[in-house]
Amino acid sequence: MLDSKKTNILLALAGAAVLMASSPALAQDPAATAAPAAAAPAATTPAPAAAPAAAPAAEAEDGGHSAAGLTPIDMFMIATPVVKAVMIGLLLASIFSWTLLIIKLLEFGSLNRKTDRFLEEFRQTRTLADMRRVATDEAYDGNPLADMAAAATEEIELSRQSGLSVAGDNKHDALARAQHAVSAVQAGLAARLSGGQQFLASTGSIGPFVGLFGTVYGIMNSFIGIVQSNTTNLASVAPGIAEALLATGIGLFAAIPAVVMYNYFNTRISAYGTRSDGFAAELLNAVSRQLDKGA
């Protein structure tokens, strides 16, 4: 009996020693028990994070156009019919303006070269008949100064054929009639050289306002779209605002070169007008000398 009590006491002391030896290890390594619990949330964390990342990409591509891939052609294609009509009209006006530039540059270049040759030959003439021959030469057909010389000499010739005296006391009347004929040619010269100037002036003055009309209309539609879609996301209205601003850009692109061309050709027209005025005085002096000589 006594031996069995001793045995039980020894077994109890051994169990207590085992418990005391195992409890410090558990206390020193709390992560061992927390690791399984932490592993489970970590496994589920990436899945929710992937969903918000996809949302901006879907919003950026609203309307089928990404923000990085929106080109001027895309802006034109998604524009409303009214804004498209404004853009097309302004582009056509710009094309016509550049066409006018090329045509008038060629016209003025040819005009000045032909005028130089005509003046050189005209100043070598010695009689009214020689003046008329040079002025009516096919090589100078359509040249304004040649037309002026032809008109003056023809008027003197018509006066002679009508039996009117063109010398002596009647010389001033003959010169007056010749001067009127020259003035009529000069009046037509102004109309001829200013062809296309009205179009350039109109394009330069109203082009920006037409483009602004397209911009206002496009932005108005964009704000209406915001109200209807019930969203303030900039990506959903950016294409509409971009195509609206493109209309103003095209308006300026058409207007600025037109204004520059208009001023440039106005200067050249004025310079040639001054040259024709000088030639008119030279022509009448030459005719007066020939009448005094009785040629």
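The above is record 1. Record 2 follows with the same two-line structure.
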Amino acid sequence: MIAVEGRPILTAAEMRAAEIAAMTADVTVDTLMARAGGAVATAVRRLAAGGPVLVLCGPGNNGGDGYIAAARLKAAGVPVRVAASAAPGSDAFRTAAAGWDGPVEALGDVAPAPVLVDALFGTGLSRPIDDAVATRLRDLAAAARLTIAVDLPSGVSTDDGAVLSLPPVFDVVLALGAVKPAHVLQPAARYARSVRLLDIGVAMDSDAAVLDRPSLPTPGPDAQKYTRGMVAVVAGSMAGAAELASVAAMRAGAGYVLLLGKTAGPPHALVRKPLDAKTIGDTRIGALLVGPGLGRDDEARAKLDLAFASGRLMVIDGDALHLVDPARIAARAPGAILTPHGGEFDALFGKSDADKIARTRDAARRSGAVVVFKGADTVIASPTGRVCVAGGTSDWLSTAGTGDVLAGTIAATRASGMTPFDAACAGVWLHGEAARRAGPAFIADDLADALTAARASL
């Protein structure tokens, strides 16, 4: 079992294309199913620790994987039973089912087991499953001490993370060959406490990947505050938001943070100056953050105009995202990073029924900027189509000010000299790690403070 961080994310169609590309005279559908089923059996045997196993098999290839896994488990001496929701629906599935020499029980009548393996429906599900099957799956899962899903929890849509039929929450989901969008996109991702990748011997390539631990530059013996990275933050009508972002930038590693506007107070390490064209145009500024608490009135628009005129590398957040359009960003702020939440994203780019990865890619292309579409599943996209998705973030981030902390964190990584995409990814990772270290019921000030430990962990 392989950790998913840094691994490619493939849609159902991309996964199928990769499997077809891997096929030769010696590698057939049967071969790939045997590999998948064998990998599942190995993982289940480790996880079950000798406990009796019940494998639920559906009518497609996911069910075929389940039959093969059950046969391998039985051969290894693991107590295992099989229940089916339907007869095998393909030649490859029938071949796989023929390798199981035990009884096949009806799903509706089968008794629970301590370890439940869901191989009913995997990649490619496009409609809700039968209510009776979904209800039975939830009941059997509730009676088990360990629940494992093969590839995906039965009932979720592969590519957009939609929930077509309510599944149980699985302890472990075993992703076959590649991570799928549903493993990291909400709401589907919440039905897996853990996702682990199984190698099935198929080469995987994608311009989308799961967010991984970054490699960040550290100060050398010749470092000084400006070479560490200088961040400037434009204060607005709600100065507290800009102050939060400024503290975050300092604790994320910036060597010098300048808060521009009418503000006062600690920390003393934060440099405060009036906002004017000369100060904001300082060529030593490695990243200029505008938007947190900016406001949306004429004064805010004037401050945003100054920011665009400065020629500095920009991080655009919060209110500023309501005062611009994609064309202006593309023309006036090359290399910018945008950090919208859902409402800000809709205001800037419009609403759509497309999945979150597709929407973020389109937004990055239209704006010419790296877009960080925030949420429980944060998607980061570059104008070239490259994507990273951060899943599994703390639910406690749902409190005021955490977005300001993220913006300041990304400004610090950008000021350090990283590319816009890498800086955005590093900032999102640091933000998530700080939340993990802060524990439950933190406030945004705690989150900003926790960035020091998060940065030190790298």
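The domain at 12-205 is CATH 3.40.50.10260 (Rossmann fold).
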